[in-house]
Amino acid sequence: MAMRIIIIGLILALFTACGSGKKTDEQAFLEGLDSAKAEGPSISEGVIGDILQQIPSPLEISVLLKESGKKYNASYLNSPDNISKYNSNYKKALNLGVYGTDLGYTNIYEQNQDGVKYMASIKDLADGLNIGQFFDIETIGRLATNSKNLDSLLLITTQNFNSINHYLQTQNRSNLSVLFLTGGWLEALHITCEVATANPTNKELQETIGEQKIILENIMLLLSFYKESDQNMAALLTDMEELKKVYDKVNITYTYKESTFEIVDGVMVIKDNSSSTIEITPDDISNIKSIASTIRSKVIS
Amino acid sequence: MKKLIVIVLSVFVLSTLEVIGQCNSETFSNQCIPKLATGFNFLKSYKIEKGGKDYVEYSYVFTKGTQYMINICAATQPTDGIVVSLFDSGRNKVASSKVNGQFISAIAYPCNTTGIYYIQYTFDGSTGYCGGSALGFKR
């Protein structure tokens, strides 16, 4: 009798223990996918996740462009029809990011007809990467039909992309997260360069381009973790190194001053007394635009 | 033999209690999203679970000219002792949500300098050591 109690107790304790090391059928399937499932980065997935989380959302740039009065221009974007060219996981992940930026741009400008096409392409790419379950195309499509739903549309879209990133990292597929965020960033840089070229006296746009130096450093660090295990990511890193050479000429200086604050309606509103200056010349802008465009052409072709 | 039975049953009970006591930070971070002030676009949600650490930290590149809002949601108001502090890339503290003994549930940070910022959550008299947070932005 006592032995029976012990055995039952042990069995029950095992059932209530947290976590399981058993590989699911889905995990086994995903690990059989092609070369973009890297053999493994040279550093822990946790460290990669810490760097990945820093990369800002391309939505910030789309909002900046809209609120600075610049008009919508669909020619800046990657055609949704190019999706037929993306057959490898490498190209799919990169262009999922590219199209994610394009979708954010169309959403901000309430260009719903274009937005619907990007939604379809994104869903297609996400399905191809076995992460389509995180892109709620039905809800997003419904929200996109009414301009009053813009806040909800942006929220759901951002949440979906965040879920995709989180899932990829939990499934040891951070390499696809890196490509996704790199593609999104590159497209945002490209669009900003195009708008800056059309508005050559706009200092804010020039500074925005200059500030991308900080994010480029993160992206190159992330790509470097895969250069030994993934030849595609190694090649992309080489391309980014050309971009870095131009950004090495861009100077960002930072002066710290203690901040102050006041409480307004229960919110602590900070006054940031620090400042920064970004030294970037028209030649720098032109060179950045040229190299970014070259890299982007490889990515979207 | 009786001692062995007690040990086995204790393991079972303790493992069950661990499940019940788990922090549901995702629920709190989801609660925080609609609490971002009007005009702020959602960027990210953060889970706040103390676990065995002194603090929980995330990081993000803030952009000059953009205003960011970070809020905190927890089981007891206003923040169950959770304090959010913001540090710049040089680890200078630029904001903290506890002032004069008062816990503020949201910080608005108009950024003047682009760079990596560290968002750190600490626990000051917390009971649940569990919460959620949302980050939003506006131009």
Give a description of the structure.
The complex is a heterodimer of chains A (301) and B (139). Helix content of chain A is 62%, strand content 7%. Chain A is mainly alpha-helical and 301 residues long. In chain A, α5 runs antiparallel to α6 (112-128) and α5 packs antiparallel against α8 (150-170). Chain B has two helices and ten strands. Chain B has 139 residues and is an alpha+beta fold. Chains A and B meet through α1, α4, α8, α10 and β2 of A and α1, β1, β2 and β8 of B.
Quick structural overview:
By secondary structure, chain A is mainly alpha-helical. Helices cover 62% and strands 7% of the residues of chain A.
The 3D shape of chain A can be described as globular
Query: Nearest-angstrom radius of gyration of chain B?
Result: 18 Å
Class from helix and strand fractions of chain B = alpha+beta
Major β-sheet annotation of chain B? 4 strands, antiparallel
Query: What's the helix-strand series of chain B?
Result: HHEEEEEEEEEE
Kindly report the spatial arrangement of strands forming the biggest sheet of chain A: 1-4
**Distance between the amino and carboxyl termini of chain B:** 69 Å
What are the segments of chain A in which pLDDT stays under 50 over at least 5 consecutive residues? 13-38
Biggest interface, chains and residue tallies: A-B, 54 and 53 residues
Strand order, largest beta sheet of chain B: 1-10-3-8
Distance between the termini of chain A: 71 Å
Label this structure with key terms:
heterodimer, A: 301 residues, mainly alpha, 12 helices, B: 139 residues, alpha+beta, 4-stranded antiparallel sheet
